[in-house]
Every structure is written in structure tokens, then in C-alpha cells.
Amino acid sequence: MLRNQKELDNVNNMAATPSPGQLSSLQIQQMMADAKRMINVRKQALEATGITLPPSMSSMASSASMPPPGVIVPPPIARNMPSMMMMENNNDVVSFDDKKRKIAELQAQIASKLASGGFKPDEEPTKPIPLLLDNEGRAIDVSGKQLLFPTRQPTLKANIRAQKRPATDSRPMGKDGTRSVVPEEEDFMPPAGNKYFDDRLPPASVIKKGLERKKKSLRFNDPGKYVAIAQKQRTEARLNNLKSEIADKARKTGIANAARMAKLSGTAGSSDKSAEYIPQVEWWDTLILEEDKKIKDLVTYDSPIKQDAITSLIEHPTQMRCPTEPNEPHCTPVFLTKKEQKKLRRQNRRETWKEKQEKIRLGLEPPPPAKVRISNLMRVLGTEAVQDPTKVEAHVRQQMAKRLKTHQDTNAARKLTPEQKKAKKIKKMQEDVTLGVSVSVYRIDCLGNQAKRFKVETVAHQLHMTGVVVMYRECNIVVVEGGPKQQAKYRRLLMSRVKWDEDMVKDKEDTPNKCILVWEGMVKERAFPDFKYKPMKTEEMVREFFKKYSVQHYWDAALSGTVLEAVIADD
């Protein structure tokens, strides 16, 4: 009993201090009063029809009555906690399942009697039924049973088709293990019932086929796929660079031309490099020789001659244009004598004067003011000069000063600025080398004199020439590139202006220094970007430097002259 009393006190305390979200005691009392009022109204309605309920049932119905609409009541378990505890102590109280069963039987009896008596129950309330929650927040009915609400599924066409599709699907299976999505028949409106249908459209089967969309499967790249692709591309790039280098070397060394001639002659080189292949007949002679009937595909000089191939006509090869020649013919200008130039200038000035006088006569231009000077003052102005000579003289001097200022301004505008003068001088010094570059190679025994070395470099820069000066102990080589006029001025510097014989060759006191022109000629383009000095220690370094610019033959020509001179001197 003490335990039951403590539990009852705890329940009362919990009811007195409601937790957040629960109803207070006043609200519960108001709710119970409303429920009793509604039960009384329903009992009166039943009594009017002649139906009476037993007292136990009426009390049970009143305890299980529904709350008014819009009112949320606490769970029946928490609300009837004291009564339930008392029922546990009372053996004559029926269980909860028996109550529910009796309520269901009573409701069935009431429904049958209402149907037989013709009584129409009140209309359903327009307001929604209040939601009843238990202490765990679950939705329950008046009997305390948990309510299970149906879950709504999305009503998409794909889900509807999947439900309607039979278990044995006849659609074709794709490569990725999925079936193609084919639109259903109900998605297409028949042409007869569609007023917007166009007869020119293709049939429905073709349209369905066009609307099909194949599902692509997710494919992952294998590890190292792009690494292999990048490695392959790098290998191809290196191979292409190697091919281009081989082609350039073959073109520069003449191997490509020899291979082309061998291809034209129809001969192939022997596998043995020591044995040189000599053709039986030159390719230009095969045109007039017949094949030997005994040995097919073999032509020798003993073969008979084709008489039909020999005529009295002479075939002249087509003359090719030199790459250094201009595309348009160059016309040499006609130079006039001094007397002819004066006469032409006088005629031009007279034509201009006549044209100006004609415009003044027609009124197109105003007549120019009289050109008054101190010498012709009285003759031009006449009486005006006599009336006020001082004023007229001041006016004349003002006009003279104005004409002088106009002349000086015109000359100043025509005068070139310092930048323009410099550009004009550089343009005059530089030459057009698009059709060919003149190259000169000089060999100097010794370049130990600092002053002469400075002249060699400075004049090359002043003439805007390119090249290199390679300083080697046995052979100093100077290579300069430019136009013909530049080469003439530079040749005059090295061969005439600079006195090389004033100095003696180092380590050879009895040998005077000298400068020799090794080679000069024309090339297609420049080999060096600028003019600079390059001191070298070994012959291999010199040759590698010139080989870098593909002009190693300059060094070979200069060194061969030095070797020949040394051999002659020893003899």
C-alpha cells in the first residue's frame, strides 16, 4: 500500500507540473467537461429513437468518448494512470482487451439499429479529427492502439510502367546489361483523335525508334591509361624530331640528292659499303635502248638502239629563275643633266603658276595681297605712301617679318628630328639582304693588339653587320655578313686602313702579322645573329662552334691555308 501510495503521489506531481508540450490540469478539466456534454447530447439523441444503454456501457462509453474537434488530449495511459493502478488491485475489473471487444460489439449493435430505424446520424464535422499522441510521440486512436499511415509512393510514368510490365520482359537486352526504355502505347495519341497531327510526319514506329535513348553504363578508366597515352605521344614527338634532324643533315650533306638520283636511275646501293655499285647503263641512255629479248628487264650498251626515239629535234630544258633575282624586272632610272633638270623645274613652276592664275580669274581663289618691300614701296602704294610714310613703312616691315617667319616655320617643319635623322642614317647604312647575303672570311695571324681588335669590332657594329671573330692561337678567323656596300667598306678597313705588318706574330718575332681574304660569296640567309668575339683553346672547340651554325666549312678553308703556309715555310 505504501508503494502504491508513493507511485500515486508521483503521478499526481507529474500531472500538476506538466512538461513542455503537455496540457495543464485546467485544460484537462475543460476537455473532460466538453466530452461529458457531447456524450449527453448523443444519449438524448439515442433515447429519442428508443434505444437505451446499460449503465456500465454508458459509463464505459463516456470514458472512451472522443474529445471535441481541434483539441489534443494527452495519451490515455498517462491520463488514467491512477485508475489503472486501482484496477490492478481490484480483481473484478475487466481487462483492456475485453473493453475493446465490448465496445466493438456495442458499436455494431448501434449501427444495425440505426440502419433499421431510419435514423440519420449527424453530418460529419467539417473540421479534421484531432491527433492523439502517446508519451513517445506516436499517433494512436481512442483505444490506445498505434496508427499506421500509408506511405505515398511517387506516381511517375516509369514506376507505373514497371508495375504494369509483366515478369517476362520481351525487350532486348543491351550490352551493358540493361533493357532499352521503349515508350508505352498510351503515351502516343492516335492520329485520328489529334487535330494537330501532320500527315507529312513519319509513322509512329519511326517516331518511337527516334525517341529511344540508350542508357550508358558507367565505365572507369584503367590505372595508367593516360600515363601510357602521354608516354606514347612523347615517343612520337622524339621520333618526329629525330626524323627532321636526319632529313636536315641528309639535305645539308647531299645524301638526299644522291638518294634521289639513285631512285631515278633505278639502282640500289650494295649492302657492302666497300664495293661501289656501278650501273650497267645510265638512266638517260635507257630511253633510246631496247630491252634484250633473251634476258628480260636488262638493258646494256650492247642492246639495240630505238631508232624511233631519235629525232632531229633538240630538247632544251626549262630555264629556272635564280632565287636572287627579283620577281618584277628592274628598270634603270634615266638620269638628267643639270641643264635638263633646270628646264624641267622651270616648266613645272610655270604650269603651277598658270593653274593658280586661272583659279583667281574664275573666282575660285582670292587674289594674293601685293608683295610690298622697301625698294618698291613708292611704286606699289603710290599716293598712300606720300600721305603717311611712317605708317606705310611700319606696315611694309610688318609684312616682311610675317613672310620671313612663314618661311622659317616651313623649313623647321620640313627639318628632321634627331630620331628621324638617326633612323635615316641607319636605313642608309643597312642594305636589303632578302635576295642574298654577302659573306667574307678573313684570316689574321695575330690579334694581340687591343686597338686593332677594337677597330675590327666597332666598325662591324657601325656598319650593322653580323658575324664572329674566333681567336685561336694558330689561326684567327673573322666572318662578316652583310650587303655588298657594307662588305666593300669593311674590306677596305681590314685590307688597307689597318696596318697589320706593324706588329709581329706572337712566338715568331721575325714573322710580320698579316690579314688574308680566305673566301667571299653569297649565301641565302644569315648564320649569326650579331657580331661578337669567341676565344677558343682547342681546334675541336672551334669546329664545334662553327658546326653549331652549320658553317664549319669556313673554318676548314681558313685552317687549310694556315697548314699550307706552315708546310711551305718548313720546306
From TrEMBL:
GO CC list: U4/U6 x U5 tri-snRNP complex
Region (Disordered): 1-23, 161-195
Comp. bias intervals (Basic and acidic residues): 166-178
Pfam families: PRP3, Prp3_C
Subcellular location: Nucleus
Domain of life: Eukaryota
Domain Pre-mRNA-splicing factor intervals: 194-417
Principal cellular location given in the protein's record: nucleus
InterPro entries xrefs: Pre-mRNA_splic_Prp3_dom, Prp3, Prp3_C
Record's keyword terms, sorted: mRNA processing, mRNA splicing, Nucleus
Domain Small nuclear ribonucleoprotein Prp3 C-terminal, first and last residues per copy: 440-558
Listed CDD domains: Prp3_C (cd24162)
One BP term from GO: mRNA splicing, via spliceosome
Keyword Nucleus carried by entry: yes
Residue ranges with Polar residues bias: 10-23
Name this polypeptide is given: Uncharacterized protein
Source organism of this protein record: Folsomia candida (Springtail)
